[in-house]
Structure formats: structure tokens, C-alpha cells
């Protein structure tokens, strides 16, 4: 069947929700702190835009090298849209250039389970949402 603009919008919304859930579920203190995002698509909206969304919503992650020795780097800019400079660590694969179906690969490393939002507050993502916590103030000892 043919897909229309509404279908693509729904897909990117779903992909954004899924990538945040995957990031929130990963344990930063183990090898499970690595998240791979891959699509069988070459559209910017399903690839770089979703990765950019994750980077903007989860400051406790970074893109890392995919370890793939081929493919083309992801776009850091495309038709007037700018993306994070680390997007060049992602990989794009094209049918006409790589003799395979088109797809995209990004690899994230989760640096911490907590995300600082203010000096005295941090967020602990839970996969289905997030919990805002206050940092306890240290009491000053009297003389």
C-alpha cells in the first residue's frame, strides 16, 4: 500500500517515543548502556531528525562511532536543516551505492542514569516517564 504524509508523521512520532524508551531502559553502568537505532529507511525525518530529537531530550547520551567501516556519514545539514555535528558518526546505506536495501544506523552511549536540569534538581528517566527529584541540601554544622 502507499503511505501518505500522515503515515510518515505517525511513524516518526512512534520512533521518537521508542528511542526515548530504549534510552531510559538502558543501564549506563554496563555494556547495556549502548543503544543502536536503525531503520530500513533513508528519509531524514525517520533518521537524523529522530536522533536529533533523542539528543535534545536526553542530555545523558552521546553518539559514538558505529564501528561500521562502510556506508556514508549521516547528514549534519540537509535542505536548510542543521543537525548536531556528531551526526557524522551515524551511517547511511543506499541501494545504488552499497548494493543492498537502504538503511540507517546510529549508536548511542548512555553516560548516566540521571539528567541534571538545574543546580538542585535532576531527572531520573523511567521509560514510561520521568521522576523529578530534589537534591538534598547539606546542613551546615554549627561552631
What would you note in describing this structure?
With 143 residues, the chain is an alpha+beta fold. The protein has helices at 5-25, 48-57, 95-98; strands at 34-39, 61-64, 72-73, 77-78, 81-82, 91-93, 103-110, 115-118, 121-125, 130-134. The strands form 3 sheets. Strands 1, 2, 3, 6 and 7 form a 5-stranded antiparallel beta sheet that branches. It has a 3-stranded antiparallel beta sheet with strand order 8-9-10, with no helix packed on it. A two-stranded antiparallel sheet has the order 4-5.
Please write the string of helix (H) and strand (E) elements. HEHEEEEEHEEEE
Q: Percentage of helical residues?
A: 10-25%
Calculate the mean pLDDT score and round it. 84
Number of strands: 10
Gyration radius (Cα, Å) is: 18 Å
The number of distinct helices, counting runs of at least 4 residues, comes to 3
- Low-pLDDT stretches: none
Fraction in beta strands: 25-35%
Distance from first to last alpha carbon: 77 Å
For the largest beta-sheet, the strand count, sense and barrel status come to: 5 strands, antiparallel
Sum up the overall morphology in one term: globular
Structure class: alpha+beta
Based on the model shown, name its key terms.
single chain; 143 residues; five-stranded antiparallel β-sheet; three-stranded antiparallel β-sheet
Topology at a glance:
Elements: H1 5-25, E1 34-39, H2 48-57, E2 61-64, E3 72-73, E4 77-78, E5 81-82, E6 91-93, H3 95-98, E7 103-110, E8 115-118, E9 121-125, E10 130-134
Antiparallel strand pairs: 1-7, 2-7, 3-6, 4-5, 6-7, 8-9, 9-10
